[in-house]
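Today's session is about reading a structure prediction critically. Students often jump straight to the picture, but the first step is always the sequence itself: look for stretches that repeat, for charged clusters, for runs of hydrophobic residues. Only then move on to the predicted structure, which in these notes is written as discrete structure tokens rather than atom positions. Here is the chain we will use throughout the hour.
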Amino acid sequence: MFGYVSCDEERLTAAERDIVGSFYCGLCMALKHTFGNFARAFTNMDCTYAYMLIVSACESEIEVKKQRCFLHPFSKRRIAYLDEDLTKKIASATVLISYYKILDDCKDEKKSTTKRMLKGFYKKTARKAMAVLPEFKTMLEVCLAQTQECERAGRSGALYDLMDISGNILLSMAENCGAPILKQLFFELGRFVYFMDAVDDYESDRKKKRFNAIALHLGNYPTKKELLLNKADELNAIYEDIKQKLNLAYAELKGKENNPIFENLFQFGFDKTYERVRKVK
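Below is the predicted structure for this chain, in token form.
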């Protein structure tokens, strides 16, 4: 459920790509310093943009340093650093979201040895993150239980229920990282991420006989190509509704000075992602 919140990189300037990269590396370093090197595997673009939005909302001071790391030993990278408290919260939220995704995957793929190994390997790291954000941990447990209940029940409105659950996860992240002003925006981002993931995984879920909310909502077509041939208008309508709500939430937050990276994300990035996940492999 990661990799869907991203700008249209072709429209970013070199300087803007450098800024995004510094936050990506900053999140990676935050995970390393808080939980150790293995936690860096949880670095992802979705949480990087969430990181950037939280920093902007909190008006936190940023220090950018150029340094090497073991992943890039031959060239210095620009790395964004924040105050320790916010850094620890964002790193912990990233770990917990990733860990609960692993738990959900274990439920969906009961025979997957890899998923079970990841669950065991990162259990100690997750416990450390839970100690930093106990309320977020509790919220994630509630959301995981709600997700599993929705999938078992198989109600016709499950797609919207599950999008809302995903929205509540990111809403809680904003609250627990000290940016309650972002609650509505993050709720809509969570709904967007769930919908993109369901479209993206539609065909593989059908082949592996896993739950997919799109199939339940629009019909159980064997391939994504057949889904798009029969239900493109319905899919587009759901996406346009999500995008409109995202843009409304963003419009209520942004100040007089537009941030070009966020403008790119909301004007072009979501469309680019939707175009990508609709492609038939």
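Discussion point for the tutorial: The longest helix spans residues 224-251.
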